[in-house]
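Lab notebook, page 48
Experiment: co-folding of the full assembly
Goal: obtain a model of how the components sit together before planning crosslinking
Operator: M.T.
Materials (sequences as entered):
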Amino acid sequence: MLAHANLVIFQALCYDARALSGETMSPSSPPSIHDLSARVIENRDLGASHFLLTLQAEPVAAAACPGQFAMLRFAGRMDPLLPRPMSISDVLPADGSHPVLLQILHKVVGRGTQLLAALKPGERLQVLGPLGKPFSVPSPVAPGSQALMVAGGIGVAIFPFLVPMLQRAGLKPVLLFGARSSRELVRKDWFARQGVEVRTATEDGSEGAKGFVTTLLQEALGSSPEVAIVYACGPQAMLKAVGEMLIASGVSAQLSLESYMGCGIGACLGCVVKVRRDSGFAYARICVEGPTFPASEVLW
Amino acid sequence: MKAAPRLEVQLGPLKLKNPIITASGTFGYGTEFLPFVDLSRLGGICVKGLSLSPRKGNAPPRTFETPAGMINAIGLANVGVEEFVRSKLPALRPYGTAIIANVFGETVEEYAEVARIASTGEGLAALEINISCPNTERGGMVFGCDPDGTRRVVSAVRKVTSLPLIVKLTPNVTDIVSIARVAVDAGADILSLVNTFLGIAVDVSRRRLVLANGVGGVSGPAIKPQALYLVHRVCRELQVPVIGMGGIMNVSDALEFMLVGARAIQIGTANFIDPASSVKILDGLLQALDHLGIEDVNEMVGALKTDGPSQDFST
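Observation: model returned without errors.
Model output:
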């Protein structure tokens, strides 16, 4: 039994607005998933092939929780065929009023993301979401407790939306951000402006510590006994290393996994990961049983 | 006011309120699609392939995108036929849609046993025997590629069920007509075709096959012309009712399959791209028939003209 097992974890109420308006999510209510044609408001080039796409997608934005994702597709297009799963990076406005915009932070890695990068304001994109199991936040927390967000490369995309939720829960958010080089440490200044402490590592040593983000995590776990929870998103090798470190340290951790997906809604069974179940293992669908998994559950 | 076009189709002993069926393996156990699809509107739902015991399926990666298509090797992960009868089937019954259980086994005896148990499920409309899954060692294709294997499986299942029997054929054979004929002779009421085409995907940078299973099944728009050809051939050679499938993404695709002889069609991969594809194609079918002035969808079945090629190059 891990040390955190008796910690009360509450499923965060999904958006500020929902909490503010007194509206709550009934656990028995069916998930509110929308499929809509969203207008591109902005597609900002952040350099190093990274883009911040802002979409008018009110129902999706309003229903979204940190850690969830959306399936993006070009309606009617047969090649590339499959929708692309993308983390919901943030919803706007972020001041607690009713969100109407959805932000997707992505990096060009293939044909689908090339098409996303080419989107211009006014063009349309089909958005299915919000999908998947959100992050949860521990409660109550000891004063001064930290929440570490461990990001590998474009894995940082999932964290902006989480920051205000951590702050509201009384946690001090710290971003441990690793990338190949300084240019790929995208949006790090945004995090700093939100009051997040940012620590960086680059493989080429161009900024921060030279090496992987796991080095930063090792330091943080050693020096900060007040770490209440760790969230991690990035390449599989990084998540595996992070997961093993956290299991060894006994700190509660949630990993956000990525995968090729067919449908995003649990039907195709394509996006599975091996997880611990009872005395054996099972293949869990990343799209509906995840993408958030406790580190202790994943069998790499 | 003009009446809406009639959509009811009769496939031997199986009557469907319309020709739109969701394909096995692409529609879960149906309820996954409740946020997107009014299940009561569908002509039929083919559920995920069922085996005697629950199966975990193959290790990941299981799917990969290919040009205008996808390749999958899920490995027939499913809850097992008993759990289906106990919990999944009752959840679908209230929708009044024909529920079709897709079944498979590793041996002839297992096929018969799964079919027998499935047939005890109250409210089941038909069985679809999968002798065409490419993704497990004994997932059925060994039977579906061989006339003798096909005969043995279909005869054995025919003996244990009085439900309408659909046999789902693989395209990965030299002569699909000979397999189709054997299936009908052994007791199939209806044929459904085609299942996925065998394929692989290669990762150049890592010099490895992409799927953990190595080989997978290719589906989506990329296989539509091949699938249409095979449906056309079977419909010309045999009198048996045929359910056509393979890359159907929109109503035009659906009508193409009906024109070459399919009395009903299955929507597969399209469910992954747009979860409401099935009902959108149904809406499109109503509109298309109305637009063409056709009162009954059956008028389109096998209505391909054979007096020369189309001269319309406007596409």
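Interpretation: Chain B is about 30% helix and 20% strand.
Next step: discuss with group before ordering constructs.
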